[in-house]
Amino acid sequence: MFNNIHVVIANISIVLSSIMLLERAIGSVDPAFYFIGIGMVLWYLGCCLRIEKLHIPSSNGFKVLLLFLVVVFISNILNINSIVAMKYKGVYAADNMLKQSLLLFLCILISIYLFNVFNFKMKNINLLAILEKMLLISFLIMGGYSFFELVSLLGVVEAREIVNFIDSIICSRSAEGSILGYFRIRSLTYEASIFGTYCGVVFPWLFMKCLKQESNNYRHLFFVGVLIYFFILLIFSFSRTAYFTVLFEAIVLLIMYRKTYDINWFKICCFLVKSSMLLLLACFFIVEFILPQSIVADMDVLDVLFSIIDTKGESTQYLSNVARISTQVAAWNMFLDNPFFGVGYGQFAFYYQYYVPSWSWESYEVIEWATNSGNVLNGCFGIYARFFAEIGLIGALIWILFLFITLRDIFYARISHEYKICFLCSFFALILFGWNFSTIRLPYYWIFFALTWALNDKSAGEDCIE
Predict the structure, then answer these.
(1) Among 162, 273, 296, 298, which residue's Cβ finds the most Cβ atoms within 10 Å?
(2) Burial state string for 275-311 with b = 16 or more CB within 10 A and e = fewer than 16
């Protein structure tokens, strides 16, 4: 019975990992972590009662991850005097350090638990086939919710009420009011850029599902429709990182699948042209004939795209860029002052005010983050910049090495070519989004780590704690 419970929990956790509400979630915990937490408690309790065995991954990646945890501990010890003394916006630096460190430790325990489930409770199951199935189910949920978001943009009160009702159950977002005040698709995530992260994870699997179908049957037409709907949601997310990440994934997938599905370059070009035309026609129809002009006036995809290279303040996204870049510049300067072990894990927000670039004060977000005018304790935009600042050169390079080893393990895993390419693209998308997000709380991180260890660990059955 317990075997089935853990398998069900693992499957549900993959589906619910798409719901990334972060601090807006109930109890500040994303839904996937509730299910994983229940399974983890049952598993470790079973280990204590000798009902279960605790297997430790033999992957080099896991060993490097443990080394990363040790470096975090050393960084905190070396900075303990300043950590204990600091307080900012009513938050003690020591409290934040403990919370962040415990979170990291908990996430590692979660990955070990999932590794045991994937490698032993699901030993005779095609793990990536299950991942594909669960991700497709997650898109049905995310896409279903976003349908009401799209309809809400038309001014349909009933759809808006449905959105707010769902929000009131799963998060505190309903306090923000009408969806009409937020002109971006974000689905069941905290904000549109996080939805973009989900898009980067799920896109390779939707794309592969579309390619696998025969070109002249209803299933193919259905998945082409799903893919077009995906791109509509992606476009209306106005996530710059998601645009370029999905474009990169599409190019890689077409190149890698060309031989697998006997696709020549002419067919690839025809497919791209047809898909682009259908997508543009769909978006044109929505913008010109469905959306109210009051909303259309606030939507400009080209403005979002070109904001990346805007240095003169001409884009509406300019100040957002200023705020994000300022955190990365501040993180770099922190690293230069504390090159080896950083300022301490979880301490970026407490030092940011001392490293704010002078040119960034024009941003209202910077003013809120770096002064006592607001109560927001900000983080760095980018996990790599954050780690260089908080745990120094050694810790940051160890984390990068860990990601590289995980990519290598996926590449050399004995799995089918099509699944391998999808898994690689999804994980690489997470790596790319690491330039934009600094949180380790994305459940997909730890699910993918555990999957990789399970796919590659051939001797885990011999390496266990009785």
Answers:
(1) 162
(2) beeebeeebeebbeeebeeeeeeebeeeebeebeeee
Q: Summarize pLDDT for 437-466 with one digit per residue, the tens.
A: 888 888 889 999 999 999 887 434 444 443
Structure tokens at 323: 């705020």
pLDDT tens for each residue of 371-426 = 776 666 777 888 999 999 999 999 999 999 999 999 999 988 888 888 888 899 99
| CA 371/CA 276 separation, integer angstroms | 46
Q: What angle do CA 444, 447, 449 make, to 5 degrees?
A: 105
Specify burial of residue 320 (Cβ count, 10 A radius: 0-12, 13-18, 19+). middle
Count how many residues are written for the chain: 466
Helices (H), 307-382: 318-337, 348-355, 364-370
Q: Are 460 and 58 in contact (CB under 8 A)?
A: yes
Q: What is the residue whose two structure tokens read 């799209």?
A: 150
d(CA 58, CA 55) in angstroms, rounded, equals: 9
Helices 417-433 and 240-260: crossing angle in degrees, nearest 10, is: 160
Per-residue model confidence as pLDDT tens digits over 16-36: 888 876 554 444 557 788 888
**CA pseudo-torsion sign 32, 35, 37, 43:** negative
